[in-house]
Specification:
Layout: H1 3-11, H2 16-19, E1 34-36, H3 38-48, H4 50-69, E2 76-85, E3 90-92, H5 99-130, E4 155-157, E5 161-174, H6 176-243, H7 249-284, E6 292-294, H8 309-313, H9 321-341, E7 347-360, E8 371-381, H10 389-455, H11 461-496
Parallel strand pairs: 1-6
Antiparallel strand pairs: 2-5, 3-4, 5-7, 7-8
Length: about 500
Amino acid sequence: MSLKNVALALSLLIPSAAWAQFSGQERPVNDSTLVLSLDDALKIALSENTSVKVADMEVQRTKYAQKGSYGALFPQINASGLYSYAIQKQKVFFGSDDESSGSSSGGGMASMFTSAFEPIMYYIQQLYTATNTPFVPYVAPQPDPSTQSSSSDPIEMGRRNQVQLGLSASMPLVNFQLWESLRITGDQVELAVEKARESRLGTVASVKQAYFAVLMAKASYDVYNAVYENAVQNYKLTENRYNARKASEMDLARAQSTLAAAIPNLYNAENSIYLGLWQLKAVMGLDLDRAVDVEGKLEDYAEHMFYDLNEGAEASLDRNTQLRQLSSQAEMLAKQIRMQQYAYLPSLAMQVSYNYYTQSDKFNLSQWKWLPSSTLALSLSIPIFSGGQRYHTIKQTRVQADQLALQRENAERQLRIGIRQSLSTMDTAMKTYEAASQAMKSAEKAYDIASKSFEVGKSTLTDLNNTELTLTQTRLQAAQAVYSFVVAKAGLEQTLGYDFTEEK
């Protein structure tokens, strides 16, 4: 196969409909294709992005945790029930282990009882004598020695079945640690809100970068597509001149190689667009099979390539989400230290209980007698000694606070460096775009002159290719300058904490 046929076959690999597929507003768009502006892409991403949804759910979770922590201030009411069966009843002992001492003790008690009642018995006898009624003195019954038990024998207590039902309530009255912990839960909610804001800022920056990457790929496609079309046109012109024996075979081969070299660049640019759109859909949280496209061109943002570098260098970091999170964590550590110091203070709690209980040897519910009991108690806890545990815990938290202060200082330094890098990139992009714009005008003029000279045969294809190469480079440099500027500006806005949904 000749070189001429190879070049023609390569030129047919790209259909004419694909030449304009990604070129400006001329590309065909289906009815099902979702054409997005930058604002539309940001709005969809802030509502569909997975990281944003997770961050919002984390805020909701911390709010629930905060509301649940306030329940410690209210009475904690619990009901309880207990049933027990005495397999062996408890036994108790009365008196001494010595039988004889127990007997003498019993006799002594009897004599004391008799001597104490002798005066009373005398007056009763006199009363009966005055009324002529025979007096029969009372004689206490003597216990049967065979049935009399020793005082050292155990006695069973209680019943077999025992049931107890109760209701108790307790609540803290004075607890400084608890009050300070509730304040910490409020700070945790604020920290979660700031983390959700960080997720939104990161999503906005990612969407902007992906959106501008698609525009950059389209700009590259337009440049390489123009190179390809010029190569096709120059090949046809050279072929006609070769057939008319006005061009050499070397010129034809050079035109064929130029056409063949233009095709891979066009395919790479087209593939970059597809990859950029997939990345944009992934960041936005859309289905990867959904047909989407972006509107506008990269040159549209060249009109806004201005920025006060002095103002940017002195910009405040008060809205930076990283520093805000570190400040919130520092406040939480300070409150945690106070909470640990409150562990040295007394705490007061109140408890109320109301119980019903019953005991019976027979399991007959209808004959059980229920007896109520209730108590009210105030519990005062005064910490005295813990082996230095509280002291070292406070020291540990203070070290964490010092570490956090150093981390914040280093983070602020790194952020300042990032701001300077973004401003330097933006400044370089502005200067590069200005120079590339001037060079592009000169290159376009030189290419027009070389193209007309080539058509009339006053210049060679090499001269035309050289001028076209210069024009292609200047166009790509101008597009790259705009892309670098908008991406650096998006990173700067993220560092400064400019939220898409807020006034700037």
